[in-house]
């Protein structure tokens, strides 16, 4: 982290030491936004070259910058699901502390599916968060 602060922003060790986690997160967010803008500018150049390269394109077909620079993946819904999953599992374990993990998993999936999440998405996140909790395979 210090190397990034030193190289990217020219911070001294004292400045770095005085950063709070919120300030650090804000710097990283700003760096990510700046990087996205730079990628978008490159995509604009690539789209301009592609659209005026002298070859014939089908009518009304043009390349945009986003054909060369993908949009960022929306992780907010995945993070929301992870947070809901942690809450759900903690609540189930609080209410039924001696429940086996397969039962906890099934109840968590049912609860989140009722809230509107896709069952496949819930299973995927569960396997990512708790890889040893998978359903028993005989």
**SSE pattern, N- to C-terminal:** HHHHHH
**Poorly predicted ranges:** none
Outline the biggest β-sheet.
none
Distance between the termini: 45 Å
Shape: flat
Strand content: under 5%
**Rg for CA atoms:** 23 Å
Q: What percent of residues adopt helix (DSSP H or I)? A: 55-70%
Average pLDDT rating: 78
How many β strands by DSSP? Answer: 0
Content-based structural category: mainly alpha
Question: How many domains, in number, for the residues?
Answer: 2
Helix segment tally: 6
Topology of helices and strands:
Layout lengths: L1 H8 L3 H5 L3 H31 L24 H20 L5 H14 L4 H11 L9
Helix pairs in contact: 4-5, 4-6, 5-6
Describe this structure in words.
- The chain has 2 domains: 2-67, no CATH class; 76-133.
- It is flat, with a radius of gyration of 23 Å.
- By secondary structure, it is mostly helical.
- The model has no long low-confidence stretch (mean pLDDT 78).
- The chain has helices at 2-9, 13-17, 21-51, 76-95, 101-114, 119-129.
- Helix 4 (76-95) crosses helix 6.
- It is built from 6 helices and no strands.
Summarize this entry quickly:
With 138 residues, the chain is mainly α. The chain has six helices and no strands. It has helices at residues 2-9, 13-17, 21-51, 76-95, 101-114, 119-129.
Labels describing this entry:
6 helices, mainly alpha, flat, 64% helix, 138 residues
